[in-house]
Amino acid sequence: MVVNRFLDYVNKQLENKRLAHVFLLETNNMELCYKEVCEVIKSLNCPHKYIKDCNEECNLCYLVDSESLPSMVKIQADGAFIKKNQVLELKEKLSFKPIYSRYNTYILLEADKLNVQAANTILKFLEEPEDNILGFLITTNKENIITTIKSRCQTFSLMYGDVVDSDESMREVAKSYLEKVVAKKGLMVNRLDLDREEVLTLFKNMLSLVKEDVIKNNFLKIDDFKKIKIMDLIENLLQKIKYNVNLDMLLDSFYIEVGRIING
Ligand SMILES: [Zn+2]
Fold first, then answer.
1. Exposed (0-12), middle (13-18) or buried (19+): which is 166, by Cβ within 10 Å?
2. 151 and 92 within one domain
């Protein structure tokens, strides 16, 4: 759902050999912004030329998603502030050359919460940039970041629209998709161009639509016990989406299984 403007921007910089070493990202949604940064980190490091949905065999993308890539360090406020020892730890971790990835990366969530000592420590780090280290400072409150830090960062604004809107449209997508799968009794249904997060939202929406329909009975023209079987199926697939299963295979198995339930 998120159009990755930032990723395009970073790729352009890289193409022109002008990649900044630290970005200050101003946002209204910390979580979505963090996700977008993860996409950028994957894109810059993935040995399989990460495009949209890197396949499940890619260890690097998996490690980024599960926040366990050793060369990627994330810190956020410990209580009210990001403290000096957190920044020192970060520097220590990034002092080793990356083994699995091209870059060492660090992410500061709520970068406006750096206390004075921590800000001074990070500043020294920013003053002596190293080629293989990339930083992302994320904030919803840019005004509270000291000027000396701001002036050393490449600033980029990542604002997100009302999340409810996108949920609403995904509900419509889910409704027509489910309708088609049920109507075609599991025969071929067109592929959807969705990423993992969107497929997750699609299935969650389908689950709530089927649940509603068991009570209201005005949408799916099938028996209640078949609806309940479909609900079980969706719940099962929702578990699988969280692991890195192939999305096309997952959708394939969805309409094959729905076909079995309807025809059976
Ligand atoms: Zn990958």
1. middle
2. yes
What's the CA-to-centroid distance between 54 and ligand 1, angstroms? 5
Q: Report the separation in Å between the CA atom of 68 and the middle of ligand 1, taken as the mean of its atom positions.
A: 14
145, 192: one domain = no
Environment class of 261 (CB within 10 Å of its CB; exposed 0-12, middle 13-18, buried 19+): buried
Report how far ligand 1's centroid is from the alpha carbon of 97 (Å). Answer: 20
Kindly give the distance from the C-alpha atom of residue 44 to the centroid of ligand 1, in angstroms, as a whole number: 10
Does 178 lie in the same domain as 154?
A: no
Domain housing 76:
5-158
User: What does the DSSP 8-state code read for residue 222?
Assistant: S
Q: Model confidence over 185-213: pLDDT tens digits?
A: 777 666 777 778 888 888 999 999 998 88
pLDDT per position as a tens digit, 223-243: 999 999 999 999 999 888 877
What strands, in cross-sheet order, belong to the sheet with 104-108? 72-75, 104-108, 133-139, 22-27, 154-158
* Number of structural domains in the chain: 2
Which of 17-21, 28-32, 246-250 shows the lowest per-residue confidence on average (mean pLDDT)? 246-250
Q: How far apart are CA 243 and CA 248, in angstroms?
A: 14
Q: How many angstroms does the Cα of residue 77 sit away from the middle of ligand 1? A: 29
Amino acid 2: pLDDT? 44
Residue 40 pLDDT grade (very low, low, confident, very high; cuts 50, 70, 90) = very high
Reported as type and span, the H/E element at residue 223 is: none
Q: What is the Cα–Cα distance from 70 to 68, expressed in whole angstroms?
A: 6
Same-domain pairing of 111 and 124: yes
**pTM of the entire structure?**
0.61
